Every structure is written in C-alpha cells, then in structure tokens.
C-alpha cells in the first residue's frame, strides 16, 4: 500500500493547516451536531477545547520572539506593525460608529461586523511574509517579522475595539490575553533550548484549534460569508497594502516588504471566539466573524503574493549589500518554524 501524502495535499491549499481542519470541524458539526455528546471524553474535548489549545499556542509563539533584534529590524518591523494595527484602529472607529458590536443582521452584508474587520486587518501571515521576502525582498527584512509577531493573539484586537469606543474589557482580561505570549517570550529569551523546544510546537497546534473552532460554525451560512470573505480579503490587501507600501518606502525600503505584509494570518480566525469568550457583547458576531476571517486568510494568501510580485518587478531591487547582509555572520533571521504559520 502506497503512502498517502495528506500533509502535502493540505499545504497546497492557501492557509491549509488552518482552513482545512476548520472546514472539517464545520462539516461534522453541521451534519452530525451530537458527535461531542455521543462520544464525550477526549473526543468531545477536541470539539470544545479551542481556548486551552490556543493558550498553549501563544506560549509557544511567544518563545519564538527574540528580544535581541537589531535596530534595523526594530525600525522595519515596528513601522509595519504600527501601520497595520493603526489602520485596523481607524476602521474599528469608523465601523464601530456605524454598526457597533453586533453583526449586520440582513442583506448583502449580513454577518459583517466590526470584530470581523478588525481581526482580519490586525494580523499578518508570518509564513507568507517571510517566504515572499526570501524570494522578492531584501533578506534582512525577513527578520522584521520577529517584531510583527506581536500582532498575534487577541490583545491588540481588544485594544482596537476599546479605542473604537465599543464594549471595553477589564484590565485583568486585557493582561490575561497577552500573558501567555509574554511568558513564552521570557522563557524563549532566557533559554535558547526552550525557544527551540516550544517553537517547534507552533505549527502543530494550528490544525487542532482550527478544528475546534470549526465545530462552532454553521455551514448553511458559508456561501454568503464566503462572498463577504472575498470582499474582505481584497479590502485587506488594498486598504493595508498601500499604506504599508508607503511606510516601507519612507523607512528606506523598496515597498516590497510593506506589500508582503498585507495579508491575514491563519490564527486570526481564532480571535473572534476568544473575544466573545472575554466579552459576551461580541457573542453574536463571533461565529460569522470566524468564517469571514478564515475566508480572508485564503483570499489574501492568493492576492498578496501576486501584489508582492508586481511590486518587486516595478519597485524592488536586490542589491549586493543586501546579499552580503544575508550571508554575514550573526545576520538576523527569523525562526525557521515560523515559516510554517498559516
């Protein structure tokens, strides 16, 4: 019997390690909703354990972030981080005034919410960014993602929603949302072996929490959410891509790194559920927002490479100095396992 290459097949799908398990969970929940109650025990826990798995995920993610970033990486990654999150905050304020916490109830935009927009805009697909930088950009720009990693998790989304004047979160909840990431960062920077050990678990956790999140989705609404997701994905690339391009140029880059950051990370699909667990005001928005953000992950995984390739052809320039910086001893680089993030 020949080997079945399941992993390769899943990875051919943009954001596959997040999207495929999420859809599998949604199919089971839609067709066989009683499954977790029938089997119970560990099987039932797989259907309801998204938050504990995510807590472990963010500890491992934090361990991969190196405090000892060079000034260039801090400047580049910090600029892209501030611009990306700043755009999400501006949109959060605008849509927070227009529609509040609840999702749109009917019509063409049914299911769209401020939560979905902010979650989709806030978090960059790290694996995609680093792969694109390796192919089209300056090698030293790959390391900028060590700063942009701070986008991961619900903390900045909570801050953004608070800035937008929507339902706020107690300070204990805000601290609790970022504490696992901080603990991981401390462990990883105190002990390189701990960084390597915990960092290897990052890609492993993704399909498990994705499956658990998928079990809370109703596939009967997936068509409309998918169309909205297409529009939201295009919006992420355009609305964040242009300011990121300009910011990259202003900080001495070619603009390629900025465009390469105009995507949505696969783990961003987990944020709406975490937000809803922290504040019931977002409970109605969480399920449709999860579907929308998951669709946005796929759309941006396709559009961002195309936009980056176009930008590289027209504005990018790989210099001998860049090539030398890549091969220089001690040159900064991102942890290899992060390239697997969806």
From TrEMBL:
One GO term describing the cellular component: plasma membrane
Residue ranges crossing the lipid bilayer per the database entry: 12-32, 38-60, 81-99, 105-121, 142-163, 169-190, 197-216, 222-246, 258-279, 285-310
Region of interest (Disordered), ranges: 317-342
Biased composition annotated in UniProt, kind: Low complexity: 325-342
Molecular function GO terms recorded: 2-keto-3-deoxygluconate:proton symporter activity
Catalytic activity: 2-dehydro-3-deoxy-D-gluconate(in) + H(+)(in) = 2-dehydro-3-deoxy-D-gluconate(out) + H(+)(out)
Subcellular location as annotated: Cell membrane
UniProt entry keywords in alphabetical sequence: Cell membrane, Membrane, Sugar transport, Symport, Transmembrane, Transmembrane helix, Transport
Pfam families, alphabetized: KdgT (PF03812)
Membrane topology: Multi-pass membrane protein
Source organism superkingdom: Bacteria
Function: Catalyzes the proton-dependent uptake of 2-keto-3-deoxygluconate (KDG) into the cell.
Protein family: Belongs to the KdgT transporter family.
Protein name: 2-keto-3-deoxygluconate permease
């Amino acid at each position: 019997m020949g080997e079945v290459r399941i992993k390769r097949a899943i990875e051919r799908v943009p954001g596959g390690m997040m999207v495929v398990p999420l859809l599998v969970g949604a199919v089971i929940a839609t067709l066989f909703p009683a499954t977790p109650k029938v089997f119970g025990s560990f099987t039932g826990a797989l259907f309801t354990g998204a938050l504990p798995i995510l807590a472990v995920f963010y500890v491992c993610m934090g361990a991969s972030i190196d405090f000892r970033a060079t000034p260039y990486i801090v400047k580049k990654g910090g600029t892209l981080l501030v611009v990306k999150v700043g755009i999400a905050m501006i949109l959060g304020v605008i849509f927070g005034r227009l529609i509040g916490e609840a999702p749109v109830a009917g019509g063409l935009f049914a299911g769209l919410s401020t939560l979905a927009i902010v979650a989709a805009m806030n978090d960059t697909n790290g694996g995609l960014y680093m792969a694109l930088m390796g192919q089209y950009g300056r090698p030293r720009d790959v390391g900028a993602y060590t700063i942009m990693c701070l986008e991961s998790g619900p903390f900045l989304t909570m801050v953004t929603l608070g800035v937008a004047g929507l339902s706020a979160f107690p300070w204990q909840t805000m601290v609790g949302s970022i504490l696992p990431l901080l603990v991981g960062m401390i462990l990883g920077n105190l002990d390189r072996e701990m960084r390597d050990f915990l960092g290897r678990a990052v890609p492993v956790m993704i399909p498990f929490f994705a499956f658990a999140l998928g079990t809370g989705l109703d596939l009967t609404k997936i068509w409309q959410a998918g169309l909205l997701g297409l529009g939201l994905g295009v919006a992420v690339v355009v609305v964040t891509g242009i300011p990121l391009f300009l910011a990259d140029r202003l900080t001495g880059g070619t603009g390629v790194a900025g465009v390469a950051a105009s995507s949505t990370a696969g783990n961003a699909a987990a944020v709406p559920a975490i937000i809803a667990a922290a504040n019931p005001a977002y409970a109605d928005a969480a399920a449709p927002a999860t579907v929308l953000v998951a669709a946005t992950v796929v759309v941006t995984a396709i559009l961002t490479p195309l936009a980056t390739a176009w930008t590289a052809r027209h504005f990018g320039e790989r210099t001998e100095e860049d090539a030398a910086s890549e091969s220089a001893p001690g040159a900064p680089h991102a942890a290899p396992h992060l390239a697997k993030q969806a």
